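Hi Prof. W.,

I finally got the Cyclin N-terminal domain-containing protein prediction working! I wasn't sure whether to trim anything, so I left the full sequence exactly as given:
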Amino acid sequence: MIEKLLHQLNALLEQESRCQPKVCGLKLIESAHDNGLRVTARLRDFEVKDLLGLTHFFGFDTETFSLAVQAKHLGYIGLSCFYLAVKSIEEERNVPLATDLIRISQYRFVVSDLMRMEKIMLEKVCWKVKATTAFQFLQLYYSLIQENLPFERRKCLNFERLEAQLKACHCRIIFSKAKPSVLALSIIALEIQALKCGELMEEVECLQKHFKVNGRDLMFWQELISKWLTEYSSNKCSKPNVQKLKWIVSGRTARQLKHSYYRITHLPTIPEISVC
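And this is what came out:
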């Protein structure tokens, strides 16, 4: 089992550099001003927050959100990326109609606009929708750590909490600069530091050495993640209002939509740290 997980991680590491956004593009967005002519970091983060709200509203997988998040896509471009990710990751029976997705997201365009942009996006990525994501690394790192722990210690690390932290990080453009493998390991390392569990820290160190993750990079991203999660957990940080999305859907449409769309009733906060 461990050999299989290591093989999967090595395969992802070989692919991740091809899926990274260009640093020059990210810097261009960060330096842009709110003049209505260019994409800014604030607008990008606002758009990603909306995609997170849609993810929870429809009850989609975190991998769908992680795949959909792109640093330079706004408006119906972002929704097109989101819809492509949904169709790529989710089960067919859970994929909403384009009309429902547009209506609930409140964007002012029609299905033909969405389909046209979807075609453009597919051509841009050479029809290769699936990409290496931080969520995939998070899953594999977590599984490796669990495999190396005694059964009675496996509940110490809460994957739901790690997952929530990753989604929060996707909402800030700065974390697009981190390699998915490093971002995922930084989140796990930070969480394990909070747990103050030496056994788990040894597992992180083994992962860091095995996959040759630079210690300074790991520390750098841990510090940024820690600051952002503190801000994200505060009342000052604006979060997606999934309940507001529900009010958009009429009674008739609600009966037509699948039950799975409503299994998430609110945006969950990051769970409290468990005590080992």
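The longest helix spans residues 2-19. Does that look reasonable to you?

Thanks,
D.
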